[in-house]
Specification:
By secondary structure, this protein is mainly alpha-helical. It contains 23 helices and no strands. It has helices at 2-39, 44-58, 61-73, 79-99, 107-121, 126-155, 158-165, 171-185, 188-200, 206-227, 233-253, 257-265, 271-290, 294-304, 328-358, 365-387, 396-431, 439-465, 468-497, 501-505, 507-524, 526-533, 542-548. InterPro entries: Na/Pi_transpt, NaPi_cotrn-rel/YqeW-like, PhoU-like_sf, PhoU_dom. The chain crosses the membrane at residues 47-69, 104-121, 133-155, 175-196, 203-223, 243-264, 276-298.
């Protein structure tokens, strides 16, 4: 019983170490990693090498799978390069199995000691977070050693020996047992190391060991697929493709297994070295053979797990991945992407209002109401998503970004309600009162509306990039808009003095719309102040501060 408890605790330690490494890397290099994966992974060799390096770093193909499926689920990369990365991850985990056969008993305590020192002394700095990664890596190395040591007494039990004796080299049966090893130990790497240990103590023969290794690879694919069961369809497609590749590897090696085992047995190395060598050779050859087939595999996965189209109802968030909440930089990026969706909906509402002003559209009440409901739904989803992030764990930059997102989503939600009220006023004026704007007044409102749309796009760009020059340009546009709004109000009053009938009939609505557009413009330009207040150049000028209060 104690031996089984040791094994389970070692597996739990491995899972925890993998979690610490994954979240630690994303906290330190999350932004750079997202940029690399979203921009430079279109070339297959780069994606393949990236899979090898990331897996070598986190020492777990399952951790790599969780990273990649998360990125695909958030739209940061497409399915095809993600499958290439997963093939590289299989080679990376095989390389790590070879490295871990060396005597690394000194590495785990060193990593844990240095990691704790850096993490406790400089917790909120990059060095402190790298120390956290070091703790996780040390725990992974320690857990893998403990799994092999805890499993050794179990393999010597009489019942277990009978079980292994029943494995006579039947590839399918051996692969099934190997897959179970990987699932139980939560790591194909641990399963392969355990298999190598069993082969080294002659508990199992070489043909059985090779079957177990192949099964361990399949088990890691099953593990990744089960781990993504709560993710969206795009993320599950990656895990499905990786699993199908591992099953195809079983079919490809089946006809040549007997001569391959006979040849390996003649090499004269120790059984443990032969098992590890086969693992590396098998994964490398399999992945290189299947590398040209990633595009058809992506289409197959998309066919087997199709995206579900939204039918009616409110807009649903696409990027708010709950599994990313433990990684602030990644979760904030998700919230930013959803906030930009809110901006797109606001722009659609502005376009509808412009069409109504010009008379090219009339019956848009239902459409605008639906867009307003969608904006409110996304606002609520983003607000609740950010509320689940523990702000005390955020660094200074992430804390500021958190506040920026909240502020902009509030402004966009207020803008949405204001636009809907403006449209109701316009339609009521045209339908109930049968009145229309003068030709000159209509053009003035349309021009102001176009400028408003332009400022919305610039404001979203400033929010996304944080560029100081763009923020200053946005403030210049705001001042220009304010000057134009005053000019148009004065021009309208002049038309009243000239007794233009249409201007007299629509006077109240005309001035109300100008005032509403001024409020909308202030909401759209608010992101400029956040950027400039955090600039190294100092505080905002007194003129800009005065402008903000309007």
């Amino acid at each position: 019983m104690l031996t089984l408890l040791d094994l389970l605790s070692a597996v739990a330690l491995l899972i925890w170490g993998t979690h610490i490494v994954r979240t630690g890397i994303l906290r330190v290099y999350g932004t750079q990693l997202r940029r690399v994966l979203s921009q430079n992974m279109s070339k297959r060799p780069l994606a393949f090498i990236a899979g090898i390096l990331v897996t070598a770093l986190v020492q777990s193909s399952n951790a790599t799978a969780m990273l990649v499926t998360s990125f695909v689920g958030q739209g940061l990369m497409t399915l095809t390069p993600a499958l290439v990365i997963m093939l590289g991850a299989d080679v990376g985990t095989a390389l790590m199995s070879r490295v871990l056969t060396f005597d690394l008993s000194w590495l785990s305590p060193l990593l844990i000691f240095l990691g704790v020192v850096f993490f406790l002394s400089r917790k909120q700095t990059r060095a402190g977070q790298l120390g956290r990664v070091g703790i996780g890596l040390g725990l992974i190395v320690l857990a893998l050693q403990l799994i092999v040591e805890a499993a050794a007494p179990i393999t010597q039990a009489a019942g277990v020996k009978v079980l292994f004796a029943s494995l006579t080299g039947d590839l399918l049966l051996d692969a099934l047992v190997g897959a179970m090893f990987a699932l139980i130990s939560y790591s194909s790497l641990a399963a392969v190391l355990l298999t190598a240990t069993l082969a080294g103590t002659e508990v199992i023969g070489l043909p059985v060991a090779i079957g177990l290794v192949i099964g361990a690879n399949i088990g890691s694919g099953l593990l990744a697929f089960l781990s993504t069961s709560m993710q969206n369809v795009a993320g599950r497609q990656v895990a499905l493709g990786s699993l199908l590749y591992k099953l195809l590897g079983l079919l490809l090696i089946f006809p040549v297994l007997d001569p391959l085992v006979a040849w390996i047995d003649t090499l004269g190395f120790r059984p443990q070295e032969l098992v590890i060598g086969f693992h590396l050779l098998y994964n490398t050859v399999r992945c290189l053979i299947m590398l040209p087939t990633v595009a058809p595999m992506a289409r197959l996965c998309s066919y087997l797990l199709p995206q579900q189209n939204e039918v009616g109802g409110l807009a649903k968030p696409r990027h708010l991945d709950l599994t990313a909440l433990s990684t602030p930089s990644l979760a904030l990026a998700n919230a930013v992407r959803e906030t930009l969706r809110m901006g797109d909906l606001i722009e659609s509402m502005l376009a509808s209002m412009l069409a109504v002003l010009r008379g090219t559209q009339t019956a848009v009440t239902q459409e605008v109401r639906r867009l307003n409901d969608d904006v409110e739904a996304l606002y609520s989803a983003i607000k609740l998503y950010l509320a689940q992030m523990p702000r005390e764990d955020l660094g200074e930059h992430d804390n500021r970004r958190w506040a920026e997102i909240i502020e902009l989503t509030i402004n966009l939600e207020l803008a949405s309600g204001l636009i809907e009220r403006m449209l109701r006023k316009i339609q009521q004026q045209k339908t109930a009162h049968r009145r229309s704007f003068s030709e000159v007044g209509l053009e003035e409102l349309a021009d102001l509306q176009i400028q408003l749309q332009s400022n919305l796009r610039l404001g979203l760009s400033v929010f996304l990039s944080g560029d100081h020059e763009s923020a200053r340009q946005l403030l210049r546009e705001k001042r220009q808009f304010r000057a134009e709004e005053r000019r148009l109000a004065h021009a309208h009053v002049s038309r009243l003095r000239n007794k233009v009938v249409q201007s007299i009939e629509t006077s109240s609505l005309h001035l109300e719309l100008i005032a509403d557009m001024k409020r909308l413009n202030s909401l759209f330009c608010s992101s400029a102040y956040v950027v400039l207040e955090t600039a190294d150049t100092g505080a905002l000028s007194s003129e800009a501060e005065g402008d903000r209060s309007l």
